[in-house]
Amino acid sequence: MLDDVVATLVCRNVRQYEGGDHLIFIGEIEHYRYSGAEPLVFHAGQYRIAAAHPGLAQ
Predict the structure, then answer these.
(1) How far apart are CA 7 and CA 57, in angstroms?
(2) Fewer CB in a 10 Å sphere around the end CB: N or C, the chain?
(3) Model's pTM, two decimal places?
(4) What pLDDT, on a 0 to 100 scale, did the predictor assign at position 12?
């Protein structure tokens, strides 16, 4: 496993499909670990911190 990551997923390969010059794997999660840290998101060419939308009820 990788150190200092927000989450890790251990998956079992369920299916794979050819996608041009790629293989697309469909997995079933067997185990996960979440550190509780804030995730970093890459969107529209920039890194951002994910945050709850203030208009959504908790």
Answers:
(1) 25
(2) C
(3) 0.57
(4) 97
